[in-house]
TrEMBL record:
Transmembrane segments: none annotated. PROSITE patterns: ELMO. GO terms for biological process: actin filament organization; apoptotic process; cell motility; phagocytosis. This is ELMO3 protein. It comes from Malurus elegans. It comes from the Eukaryota. Pfam families: ELMO_ARM, ELMO_CED12, PH_12.
Length: 719
């Protein structure tokens, strides 16, 4: 008979003593439990002791977390958090270097526990940490442990970052700015500053002033990958906390220093594989840079702005300069105005008498004008060829440059998510973005020429404008999905995907759809589904057995602890535990926490998850909600909370957990995988029927013959 819910069977260890096997009653006060355990080992002063997990993070057991104890857990009797905090508080002030070092090392380890951290901070322990750093007498190992302990203590949010003294902050800054400092100290210092920047405007301004962009660029060029990562993290924190004007100035300075080319060469194409954290920072840097276009994108043209009107006139003058100069000299004002209107019409403006009206729509607003001017100035030959080539065509067959440019700018803004907030988890950046300054404008230059090329291939007229732009969007989207490494490669590939290629792809997709809609084929699909769904289930469970690295995301910042979770080969236990950065696939034995599959009750996703409800009351990040899921186990209060690294992992894990719970797989990935497998299986089954039309109804079965005399009688033949 299973034990009652309020009773768990556990083992308790103590150094130099025989372990105790007890039945822990969860309703019994923890002080009474400790008294019984100490009495069994004849230990006085039970209030000086506490229980903590023997494995894993060795968390202290308190009244608030005791319900997390599972059957079979191994606990250890140890010094209570208040006693430990008192001893370490004294130890870190010792004049003996060895005692001080050991105390700080232990402090850095124990500070991960919230109960201990509370006790240590309540003794004004942070003041001692501040003094060690501010006095600056200690370096090397002592300083490393001090900064590590400080980081862990601040992680619990008991103390505001704004309480830090200017002296302390400047000392941390000095470790970042000095050359002759141990790399581990610089990494911790960069991490502290990264955490500090988003908390207040005052701290942001202080760090921005003290840590120059040049210094961060120096750290980015370091060979130490972790130092490089921490420097990038601080740079991103500064960019995200800056005002629009500050952000633009910072990005302009970074452009002058060729940061994109450096990232493209030394980080993206480094011999070392790109980690998830660095991929996220590159995505944010790309997003921040593209969002600098947002202001122009959302600003309509002002017909009374002389600067904007000059830009508009420059388009006409560049295209028709010699022609205009030769013919307008002796013309009246009215005649010149008429000629200008004619030239603007040739440029493809719909309102040729007042072309500014075409640019009143926002988005794309002035960004479209900027792109046209950039194209005309930086590739004048291609610009003139585009305009003059279409001027010589019949009116209804000419490709309108201005109208196409305005629509293309809008399409590029939508594809590249210009003006959208950064995701907390996304890692999808375009490598070619970092290979080119003025990326958006250069991409426009390639794509506007693609518009003209596609227009000619489609033999389009003005009525076909929307169709042409739809094809161009498809061409750009399909090639961007291949993640070309440079704009030159993008240009080659996108020009290779001509209109006939798009038609072939569409026809294949349409034929495939038509094939799969025939009644007999639909019946065959239904018969194949169960077998293929079972195959998908096995694949999901196999993925869970391989395991995934998850990142805990706090309300204050993205960067946090890493942990790994995987399913046992017999599909009976989920193993999980914290891991260090850089660990790819830890062995199952090193994951000390576990949940029996039999104890799993249900799966929660999105807003239903407790860890999404616990987040601060600010705006909820949509991406985190889309990647969050939780396993409810034992009774409903206990949850193991996940935030998947990407949507693919979210789908595979939620499907796999649903399989373990005996439920249907519900993710969109299941339907995608099922469609792919069904398509492959159907093509193999129907291979012999190629070019044979499949009737909607099966042919009628012929009537039986009137007699069976045509059958051969074998018995007579034997006689």
């Amino acid at each position: 008979m299973p034990p009652p819910k309020d009773v768990v069977k556990i083992a308790i260890q103590m150094v130099g003593a025989i372990p105790q096997l007890i039945e822990l009653q969860q309703t019994k006060p923890l002080a009474s439990v400790l008294k019984d355990v100490c009495d069994a080992w004849s230990l006085p002063n039970a209030e000086r002791y506490a229980l903590q997990y023997a494995d894993g993070r060795q968390t202290y057991i308190t009244e608030s977390n005791r319900r997390d104890i599972k059957n079979g857990s191994i606990l250890r009797l140890t010094t209570s958090p208040d006693q430990e905090a008192e001893q370490l508080y004294i130890g870190i002030q010792s004049k003996n270097v060895d005692v001080k070092t050991d105390s700080l090392k232990k402090l850095a380890s124990l500070s991960q526990d919230v109960t201990f951290a509370q006790e240590f901070i309540s003794r004004n322990g942070l003041k001692q940490i501040y003094s060690i750093v501010e006095e600056g007498n200690d370096t090397g190992e002592i300083l490393t442990h001090t900064l590590k302990a400080f980081t862990e203590l601040m992680e619990h949010d008991f103390v505001s970052w704004e309480n830090l003294s200017t002296v302390f902050i400047r000392k941390i800054v000095s470790y970042v700015n000095m050359n002759a400092v141990d790399a581990s100290i610089q990494q911790l210092s960069l991490s502290i500053l990264e955490n500090m920047v988003p908390t207040s405007r005052l701290l942001f301004e202080l760090v921005k002033k003290e840590v120059t962009l040049d210094r961060l660029l120096t750290h980015l060029q370091a060979t130490n990958a972790q130092l490089q990562l921490k420097a990038m993290a601080l740079l991103i924190a500064l960019l995200l906390s800056a005002t629009d004007t500050e952000r633009r100035d910072m990005m302009d300075y970074l452009r002058e220093k060729n940061i994109r080319q450096f990232i493209h060469k030394n980080i993206i194409h480094s011999s070392e594989p790109l980690g998830d954290e660095m991929a996220h920072y590159l995505y944010v840097l790309q997003s921040v840079s593209l969002n600098l276009c947002e202001h122009r994108m959302k600003t309509s043209m002002d017909p009374y702005s002389q600067e904007q009107r000059d830009l508009l006139q420059s388009l006409r003058q560049t295209a028709f300069e010699s022609e205009s100069e030769a013919s307008t000299g002796n013309f009246s004002t009215e005649r010149r105005r008429s000629l200008c209107a004619k030239e603007f019409r040739k440029l493809g403006f719909m309102n040729n008498s007042n072309p500014a009206e075409d640019l009143r729509r926002a988005p794309p607003g002035l960004l479209a004008l900027d792109n046209m001017v950039y194209f005309s100035k930086n590739t004048p030959n291609a610009y003139s060829r585009f305009v003059l080539e279409n001027s010589s065509r019949e009116d209804k067959h000419e490709c309108p440059f201005a109208r196409s440019s305005i629509q293309l700018t809008l399409i590029l803004c939508e594809i590249l998510h210009v003006g959208e907030p950064c995701s907390e988890t996304a890692q999808a950046f375009y490598p070619m973005f970092f290979g080119q300054d003025h990326f958006f404008e250069e991409l426009f230059c390639i794509c506007i020429q693609l518009v003209n090329k596609t227009w000619k291939e489609m033999r389009a007229t003005q009525e076909d404008f929307d169709k042409v732009m739809q094809v161009v969007r498809e061409q750009i989207t399909r090639i961007l999905a291949l993640k070309p490494t440079s704009l030159e490669l993008f240009k080659t590939r996108v020009n290779g995907m001509n209109y006939s290629e798009i038609l072939k792809l569409r026809q294949m997709e349409r034929l495939h759809q038509e094939e799969t809609l025939a009644v007999p084929v639909l019946e065959l699909r239904e018969k194949l589904k169960p077998e293929l769904l079972e195959l998908i289930r096995q694949q999901r469970l196999l993925h869970l057995c391989e395991g995934t690295l998850f990142r805990k995301i706090s309300s204050r910042r993205r960067q946090d602890k890493l942990w790994y979770c995987r399913l046992s080969p017999n599909h009976k236990v989920l193993h999980y535990g914290d891991v260090e950065e850089g660990v790819q696939s830890p062995p199952i034995e090193s994951l000390l926490e576990k949940i029996p599959v039999a104890d799993m009750k249900m799966l929660l996703v999105g807003k239903e998850c407790p860890h999404t409800k616990e987040k601060s009351s600010g705006k909820q990040n949509k991406d985190v909600l889309e990647l969050a899921f939780s396993i409810v186990h034992d009774v409903e209060e206990y949850c193991l909370n996940f935030i998947a690294p990407n949507r693919y992992e979210f789908c595979l894990w939620t499907d796999g957990l649903n399989v373990l719970l005996g439920k249907e797989m519900t993710s969109e990935r299941t339907q995608t995988d099922l469609d792919v497998l069904l398509s492959m299986e159907l093509k193999l089954r129907l291979l012999d029927l190629e070019n044979i039309s499949i009737p909607d109804k099966p042919p009628p079965i012929p009537k039986p013959p009137s007699n069976l005399n045509f059958c051969y009688d074998f018995s007579q033949a034997e006689q």
